[in-house]
């Protein structure tokens, strides 16, 4: 057995599927002197990999998950450890059938083979399933099982063969050495390893190891119950580990998966059973392994009955015994995404945690790329460890959200669905007033944010169904209201007051602030004081890291304003790129300032009623910001717009927010102003103007050219991604972001249906389209455009289809609806000449 | 027809390292979970065999808290008929008390019309290892007893009991009703089937109380000795490891020759 080295270029802690894959991919990317340690023995150190059910359904509603899973499958196949079995997702209810139709949409969008089948077709392939229990199913022929332990061994061996890796099992981490915010060494029971880069890939133990370094990995160990029943005669007769397709009995939140002569039944239906990483037993204390906890059979009994119902002969055979039953531990996170990337607290300390078998090798490849050159090929925006706000890292939050999410593992989750646990954590200063106005609150990064106001309900009648486009189908209108569209129309007629407290706000200050900001953003940062610029932020490959606004407040002072959801990751991106000598620093003011927007034809009049400042177009030009006095309040006003109207974002210290809000309501209401929710700001106003949103249209896989955001000329100063941008400018795009309008909403049953996002775009006759990346077009944003009386979709189309007037179709719940390309670039569908923003309308 | 009573105790699973409760008075099952002692699992299997062969019934009895019903149902899941929980704080009871509680339950069932021709117990409990309850119970019931049995068969009014000893196999014949304590090894305990488990969930478990006063175990405390140093020897890698592996399996008597 190898002795423990005293130094390494990189220490990988953990020898489960993630640690093994990561060691391999780092070696592939040229890393040497990698030391991998694990507390347990090889090849199964006792973590979640060792008891995983090891099957892979590639379909997921999330593109990030689907792409990572597809890459993992490719890798497992290359390693020779993948067995294709096919798999069914079965429906017992009509509601589930509808969800399976939606699964078809996602499958088509991500290029995953799938079809809906009858109970008879399921029974043909799985004769021991009682077809009378189900009403239909989705068939995924590329589902399969993997040997994740063998895969790990092969990957370690390959890295060892390269001379890049030393793996030492049975080594326990006892401490982490951090100096000046940087990791310097890992302390173990067998000595210290000095290293500048350390990756925590310890699954359920990751939070405990991270805490040793003062970093936080907000995941929780959670129980997933599984039993193994056998020997079953019908299974034992077949050769190999698996010959029958895997069954997901979706409505009971259970699966049945053949494993040799046994049938494994796993459940996501029981109560959430969470553990603390500190309470997981040691290898010696545990009966089987630390992550195979004692089975609590009462929790499983209802599932046993349901499984028996589905497979009465197979599971009802008295000779088949429940010979293995565990409360298996796996990792859950508060938002369901993995936790990847360098920790914000400690430089050089990385997390590769909360990753399941189906994502292991793909995630590891992306993280290794990230560690090597900063730019993973697959966008990991949703999984970035830097995404969390402090409150999201608390145990209370992690426990509340994972408890709520556990039963949704196989659940039907609406894309607009809101969390019910741990709400009312971040309240805007005008929260009480918003409640009085009947605000319907949605959550954004912990903020309670009005999505629309019931006090505006009367406007629905005023504008009528042609423009407010009320939805008939329960699914389409769940988490939605026609009041949003009415608020939109009223804003365009008079004005709207919008709470924007959820913005993340941070300043870049210091003598080198200009130099630092100039290098990070695409737009010219060397502007006069009082200018506001909207700008993309790119990575080295020219992919989007963010899009945000920057205000120059002084020669050495820039204020960055960005979306709440991605704000903390943006802050880390900026902070990581400040000069080493401290000549510029990032200072977070998110909790110091609240923001509200006033937009609409009457905005100028309303502001002029509360301030003596010149609010005219000439006196306060677009793209500028300055302090104005509103009574005794000093307000930073910024003349930009995300809804395509004349108006301002108004920034005041948090404690003055309620007063400003009240003053604006008082002055604006007589002029017809209404409070407007984020349904308008985030969707209807934005989509009419063709504004792109980070996380929807913009991510690291998209470029300025593809999104129609390229420029005729670029600033002279260098910026991150400039080389790539210049190269891309000369190439034909592989896909083009377009806006499409839905021509006819009528379904076969006569109900008008409204797409919600994520649906595949096909030819009029339903054929698949493929862009230059090999991707299939899908709807990145869907929403009402009330001013146009249309439902608008955004999608990246192959360049041949990206022509105004091209007739295509969108597939929604397995029906085709005709759509037409209305814009093949960033041209707004509403007010294309931007007269409203300039106040000329 | 022999109706059998088989007595089981809820104990921490003894497979992993022993963990004590904070007060050092008991073995703790927080990591390993709770189970039935291996000897008692064997006793349940023998009870089911005897009852099936003679057309009798099997009652699983446990003295303990409501949680012990899990162990009672585990017995029913592998073929027993019904259960009795003598509800008590098992930690406050000593072997004298447990024997008395079981005797009271046997008498109560007798009054209700069921005479257990055979009472089976484990040789000793996995957590306390008192080795006393079976003998004391036989004394209280005024029945013959064999300890350390590995198989039991009944034929009319006689039980034939075999026990593997260092000197060979000891065979006893004793008149029923009788008490036998069981050592694991003579029978393979079963895991429950799905149907068995569901049947067990619905089976009747009668709750009784014990009228006696606890004498207790007189235990002062438990200590866990230092675990013996564990040595990992890598036998080899790939096919070259085969001869070494065979040698180990022979040493462990998994394979013979």
What's the layout of helices and strands?
The complex is a heterodimer of chains A (841) and B (257).
Chain A: E1 10-13, H1 17-28, E2 34-37, E3 55-56, H2 63-79, E4 82-84, E5 87-91, H3 94-110, E6 115-117, H4 119-125, E7 136-140, E8 144-146, H5 148-161, E9 165-168, E10 173-179, E11 182-188, E12 191-194, E13 197-200, H6 206-212, E14 220-230, H7 233-236, E15 246-249, E16 254-259, E17 262-267, E18 292-293, H8 297-310, H9 312-316, E19 321-332, E20 339-342, E21 349-353, H10 360-373, H11 395-406, H12 431-436, E22 439-444, E23 447-453, H13 459-463, H14 465-468, H15 474-477, H16 482-493, E24 495-499, E25 504-509, H17 513-520, E26 532-538, E27 544-554, E28 557-562, H18 567-575, E29 585-588, E30 593-599, H19 603-610, E31 625-630, E32 633-638, E33 647-653, H20 657-668, E34 673-675, H21 678-688, H22 722-729, E35 736-742, E36 761-763, E37 779-785, E38 790-797, E39 807-812, E40 815-823, H23 835-838
Parallel strand pairs in A: 1-2, 1-13, 2-9, 5-15, 13-21, 24-34
Antiparallel strand pairs in A: 3-8, 4-8, 5-7, 6-7, 10-11, 11-12, 14-17, 14-19, 15-16, 16-17, 18-19, 20-21, 22-23, 24-30, 25-28, 25-29, 26-27, 27-28, 30-33, 31-32, 32-33, 35-38, 35-40, 36-39, 37-38, 39-40
Chain B: E1 4-8, E2 10-12, E3 34-36, H1 38-54, E4 58-64, H2 69-77, E5 82-87, H3 95-111, E6 118-122, H4 133-141, E7 145-149, E8 151-155, E9 158-165, E10 168-175, E11 178-182, H5 194-202, E12 205-209, H6 242-251
Parallel strand pairs in B: 1-4, 1-6, 4-5, 5-12, 6-11, 7-11
Antiparallel strand pairs in B: 2-3, 8-9, 9-10
Helix pairs in contact in B: 2-5, 3-4
């Amino acid at each position: 057995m190898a002795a423990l080295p005293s130094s390494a270029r990189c220490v990988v802690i953990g020898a489960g599927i993630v640690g093994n894959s990561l060691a391999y991919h780092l070696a592939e990317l040229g890393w040497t002197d990698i030391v991998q340690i694990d507390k347990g023995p090889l090849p199964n150190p006792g973590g979640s990999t060792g008891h995983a059910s090891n099957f892979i359904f590639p379909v997921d509603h999330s593109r990030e998950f689907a792409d990572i899973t597809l890459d993992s499958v490719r890798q497992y196949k290359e390693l020779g450890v993948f067995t294709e079995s096919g798999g069914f997702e079965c429906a017992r209810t009509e509601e589930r059938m509808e969800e399976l139709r939606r699964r078809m949409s996602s499958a088509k969008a991500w290029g995953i083979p799938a079809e809906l089948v009858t109970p008879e077709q399921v029974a043909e392939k799985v004769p021991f399933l009682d077809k009378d229990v189900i009403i239909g199913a989705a068939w995924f022929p590329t589902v399969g099982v993997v040997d994740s332990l063998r895969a790990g061994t092969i990957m370690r061996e390959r890295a060892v063969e390269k001379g890049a890796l030393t793996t030492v099992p049975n080594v326990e981490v006892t401490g982490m050495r951090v100096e000046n915010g940087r990791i310097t060494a890992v302390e173990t029971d067998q000595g210290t390893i000095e290293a500048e880069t350390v990756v925590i890939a310890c699954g359920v133990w990751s939070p405990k190891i991270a805490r040793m370094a003062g970093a936080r990995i907000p995941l929780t160990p959670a129980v997933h119950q599984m039993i193994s029943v056998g020997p079953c005669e019908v299974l034992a007769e077949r050769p190999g580990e698996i010959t029958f397709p895997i069954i997901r009995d979706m409505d009971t939140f259970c699966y049945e998966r053949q494993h040799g002569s046994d049938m494994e039944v796993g459940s996501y239906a029981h109560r959430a059973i969470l553990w603390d990483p500190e309470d997981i037993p040691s290898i010696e204390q545990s009966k089987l392994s630390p992550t195979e906890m004692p089975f609590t059979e009462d929790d499983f009994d209802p599932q046993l009955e349901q499984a028996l119902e589905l497979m009465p002969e197979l599971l009802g055979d008295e000779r088949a015994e429940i010979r293995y039953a565990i409360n298996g531990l796996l990792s859950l996170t508060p938002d369901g995404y993995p936790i990847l990337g360098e920790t914000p607290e400690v430089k050089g300390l990385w997390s590769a945690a909360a990753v399941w078998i189906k994502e292991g090798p793909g995630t590891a490849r992306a993280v290794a790329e990230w560690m090597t050159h900063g730019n993973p090929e697959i966008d990991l925006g949703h999984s970035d460890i830097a995404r969390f706000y402090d409150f999201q890292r608390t145990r209370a939050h992690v426990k509340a959200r994972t408890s709520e999410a556990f039963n949704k593992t196989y659940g039907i989750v609406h894309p607009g669905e809101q969390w019910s646990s741990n709400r009312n954590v971040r309240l805007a200063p005008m929260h009480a007033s918003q409640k009085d106005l009947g605000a319907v609150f949605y959550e954004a990064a912990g903020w309670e944010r009005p999505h629309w106001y019931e006090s505006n309900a009367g406007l629905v009648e005023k504008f009528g169904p042609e423009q407010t486009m009320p939805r008939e189908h329960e699914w389409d209108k769940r988490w939605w209201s026609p009041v949003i569209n009415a608020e939109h129309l009223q804003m365009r007629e008079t004005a709207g007051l919008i709470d924007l407290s959820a913005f993340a706000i941070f300043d870049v200050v210091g003598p080198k602030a200009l130099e630092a900001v100039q290098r990070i953003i695409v737009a010219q940062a060397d502007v006069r004081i009082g200018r506001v610029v909207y700008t993309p932020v790119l990575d080295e490959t020219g992919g989007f890291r963010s899009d945000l606004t920057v205000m120059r407040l002084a020669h050495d002072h820039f204020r960055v304003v960005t979306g709440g959801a991605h704000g903390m990751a943006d802050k880390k991106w900026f902070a990581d790129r400040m000069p080493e000598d401290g000549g510029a620093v990032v200072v977070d003011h998110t909790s110091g300032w609240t923001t509200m927007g006033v937009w609409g034809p009457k905005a100028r009049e309303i502001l002029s009623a509360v301030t003596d400042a010149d609010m005219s177009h000439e006196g306060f030009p677009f793209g500028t910001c300055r302090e104005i006095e509103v009574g005794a309040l000093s307000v930073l006003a910024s003349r930009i717009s995300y809804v395509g109207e004349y108006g301002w974002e108004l920034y005041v210290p948090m404690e003055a927010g309620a007063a400003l809000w009240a003053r604006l309501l008082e002055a604006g209401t007589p002029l017809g102003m209404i409070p407007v929710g984020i349904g308008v700001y985030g969707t209807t106003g934005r989509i009419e103007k063709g504004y792109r949103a980070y996380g929807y249209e913009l991510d690291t896989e998209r470029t300025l050219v593809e999104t129609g955001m390229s420029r005729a000329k670029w600033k002279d100063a260098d910026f991150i991604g400039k080389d790539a941008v210049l190269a891309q400018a000369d190439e034909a795009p592989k896909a083009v972001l377009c806006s499409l309008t839905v021509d006819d909403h009528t379904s076969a049953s006569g109900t008008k249906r409204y797409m919600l996002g994520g649906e595949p775009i096909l030819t009029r006759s339903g054929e698949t389209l493929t862009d230059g990346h090999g991707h299939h077009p899908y709807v990145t944003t869907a929403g009402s455009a009330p001013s146009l009386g249309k439902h608008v979709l955004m999608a990246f189309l192959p360049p041949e289809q990206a022509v105004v007037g091209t007739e295509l179709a969108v597939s929604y719940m397995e029906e085709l609806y005709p759509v037409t390309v209305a814009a093949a670039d960033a041209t707004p569908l509403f007010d294309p000449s931007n007269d409203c923003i300039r106040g000329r309308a | 027809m022999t109706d059998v009573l088989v007595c089981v105790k809820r104990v921490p699973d003894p497979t992993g390292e022993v963990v004590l409760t904070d007060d050092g008075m008991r073995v703790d099952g927080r990591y390993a979970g709770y189970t039935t002692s291996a000897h008692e699992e064997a006793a349940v299997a023998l009870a089911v065999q005897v009852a099936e062969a003679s057309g009798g019934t099997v009652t699983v009895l446990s003295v303990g808290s409501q949680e012990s019903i899990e162990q009672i149902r585990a017995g029913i899941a592998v073929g027993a008929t019904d259960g009795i929980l003598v509800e008590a704080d098992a930690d406050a009871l000593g072997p004298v008390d447990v024997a008395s509680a079981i005797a009271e339950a046997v008498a109560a069932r007798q009054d209700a019309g069921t005479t257990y021709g055979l009472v089976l117990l484990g040789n000793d409990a996995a957590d306390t290892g008192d080795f006393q309850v079976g003998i004391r119970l036989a004394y209280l019931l005024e029945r013959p007893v064999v300890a350390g049995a590995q198989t039991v068969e009944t034929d009319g009014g006689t039980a034939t009991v075999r026990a593997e000893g260092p000197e060979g196999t000891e065979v006893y014949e004793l008149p029923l009703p009788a008490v036998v304590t069981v050592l694991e090894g003579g029978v393979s305990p079963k895991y429950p089937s799905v149907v068995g488990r569901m049947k067990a969930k619905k089976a009747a478990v009668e709750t009784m109380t014990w009228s006696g006063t606890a004498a207790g175990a007189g235990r002062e405390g438990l200590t866990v000795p230092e675990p013996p140093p564990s040595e990992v020897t890598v036998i080899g890698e790939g096919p070259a490891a085969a001869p070494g592996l065979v040698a180990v399996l022979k040493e462990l008597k998994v394979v013979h020759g």
